[in-house]
Specification:
Blueprint: E1 15-19, H1 23-35, E2 39-43, H2 46-56, E3 60-63, H3 72-81, E4 88-93, H4 99-105, E5 109-112, H5 117-127
Parallel strand pairs: 1-2, 1-3, 3-4, 4-5
Helix pairs in contact: 2-3, 3-4
Length: 128
Amino acid sequence: MLLRTGLPSVANPLYVLVADDDPDIREMVRTALQLDGHRVLEAPDGQTAWNLIVANRPALVLTDVQMPGIDGLELTALIKANGYDDTKVIVFTAGMATAWQAQRAGADAFVTKSAPLLELRAAQKLKT
C-alpha cells in the first residue's frame, strides 16, 4: 500500500516518541511518522519525554537537543543509563550539538533538522 508520501507503508509500525519544544516541528515529524504507519507520542520537554518513556517504553525516541529542563543529550544518556537498550534514540537537532556529542550520550543516530525527511526516515529504518 502506498501512502500520500509516495513511500510504502512500514511492515512493522513502531511506537515512537517525538521530543521537541517546537510544536511545529513535533507536528511535522508526527504527521510524517503517522503517514508511514507509526504510532506517535509527543513531548514538549525532556522531563515529559522521560515520563512517557518510563510509562510507554517506545521503540524509538526522536529528540531535539535544546529543550527546557532535561535537554536531548541528557535524555539520551538517561535512556541508555537506565537499561532501555531496546529503545533506539535519534538526536534530531538544528545544530545545537555535534554527531560526536550525540554518540557520546548514547544516540543510535544523529540527523540535522535541515536534512531532508528522507534522511530522517533512513536513519529510523537503519537503527530500528
